[in-house]
Structure formats: structure tokens, C-alpha cells
Amino acid sequence: MCAARSDAAEQTAALLPRLTVVIVNWNGRHLLDECLGSLLSNGYDPLDIILVDNGSQDGSAAWVRDRYPLVEVIEAGENLRWAGGNNLALRRLQSQELSGRYVLLLNNDTFVPEGSLVRLVRAMAAEPRAWIATPRICFSFDPARVWYDGGIAGRRTGWIRHAGIRQLAGRLSFKPRFVEWGTGCALLLGETALRELGQLDEGFWFYGEDSDYSLRAGEAGGRVLHVPSALVLHRVSDALGGASPHKAYLKSRSHVRLLGRHWSRRDWPVLIPAQVLYYVALSAWHLFGGRWDTALAALRGVLDELRGAPSVA
Questions:
Q1: What is the largest distance, in Å, between two alpha-carbon atoms of the chain?
Q2: Helix (H) / strand (E) containing 82
Q3: What's the domain count of the chain?
Q4: Which residues constitute the domain of residue 302?
Q5: Which of 162, 127, 153 is CA-nearest to residue 234?
Q6: Which residue, 181, 213, 234, sits at the end of a domain?
Q7: Cβ neighbours of residue 309 closer than 8 Å, sequence gap 6 or more
Q8: For the whole model, what pTM was predicted?
């Protein structure tokens, strides 16, 4: 009986393509045990894990080497941010054999339940039109409630949002479907994306790189497949805080950059009024909550991006 189970496990593993998980870390040692442990116990084989450490000051790199010797650690030496850290690993991978390879870009503040990696990769492998795939992502503090169930990009309004956010996962469909963009919290890249799209745009300072990459895929003829049966739990906003002025500033800058890259002038008659309405509503929400500094930071981000001001950390 044990031998039969072993043979079955080997046959299952033989059918799975090689998966490399890339995790960018900056002072996130307190998150890594849960994240790495969930990957190594996920039941996926062959699996490689690369941790890119963006100049952490909390001993993350040394801790991972000691605790998880099978994880490859790349020390950037400085904070290259999310896009730059991932690109460091992608450049290394793109110099190797890409045939049949899958790469999952994964946040360090995540937990991947057992079996989710297999379901995500198999669903993408079965859909030749998919260049990118995403799992369903739920709040780690409330696993029954959804944070991301597909990305929506208003092609006229420019409103970028998550489908299903804060809804109960059990009430949503588990059927795979194509969506407009995938979140960088957990973004699976196939061989075609790695070859045709190359690297992430580091001009996005902290947000928007994932939307940009997904929209580039669509413009090149690829699709983004959402796989709700694959689940990731996410500690939302662990790095910057849920409504911090800095986060609001970075999101605004990146959003304006994204619109400039993927929306044309013919969209302006609808796009501009829609965006003015959005930022009026956003500012009112922050002001109503007593977050004057956050409201001002969001507006400053828009103005700074429009006038081409230098980016700040």
C-alpha cells in the first residue's frame, strides 16, 4: 500500500512542470517562517524558491540561509522595491532554459494552503491562451472573505479595482475565468510571458507594476487566467499600513503613470471626468475619517506624476 502511494506520488510529480517561486523581502523576517513553510509543505514538486532580500536590516537573509537551506537567497544590497527585486531574480531565470518553466511572484506576507500551487499551475497549463494566472486571495485574518477575485480595469473610466473584494468566498464561483489584470501579491508567469514581456517596469515606484505587466500581456495577445480553486491568504498592507499617507501618495503616482501608458487620448472625454470624480470621492472619504494628511498625499501624488517630479522612497 505504501509502495503504491509512493508510485502515485512520483507519477503526479512527473506531470508537474518546474515551478520557481520568487519572494521579495525587505525587513520581513517576522513573515518568512509562515510563508516559506507553507510553500515547502504545499505538495508541489519540482519546486525552487528564490528569496531576494532588498537590503534588510533585520537579519532576514542570514536567518533564511540558516533555517531554510534549500531556499536560494539573493542579496540585492539595497532596496530595489518590488519590481526591482523581482527583476533581479527574473534576469537570472531568463538566462536559463525557459522551456516549460513557471515563475510565481509571491509576497512575503502570504500563506499558501496545501494543494494551491498544483491547482494554479495545472489550470494555467491547461489553458494555452493564458500567459499569466492568479489565485483567489483572501484576508489572512478572515480567510472566508475575499481580498482579490480577479482584476477589473475600466477601459473607459480608468477605475482599477479588485473583483469580489470583502465578499464571502463560498458565495463566489470557483470556475476559472479570464480577467484584465493580476495582482503582484501572487502572480504566476508562464514561459510566453517570460519570453515576450521580459521584466517589470521599475518606473512604478511601489504600485501599478502588476497591472502594467498584465495590460502589456493583453496588448501583446496574451490573457490573464483567474483560478479561484487556488487559494492564497494575505496579510494586507503589512509593509506600509492600510491608509498611510505614503501608501496613498505612491498609489496615486503609479495610477496616473498606468493611465498614461495604457489609455489613449480618445479615452479622455470619459477618463478625465471619471478620474476627477474618483479623487474627489477618495479625498472626501479620507477627510471624513479625519485623515487629512492621507487625502493631501493622494492629491500630491497625482500632481507630482503629472508634472514629472522625481520619485521619492
A1: 69
A2: helix 81-94
A3: 2
A4: 245-306
A5: 162
A6: 234
A7: none
A8: 0.92
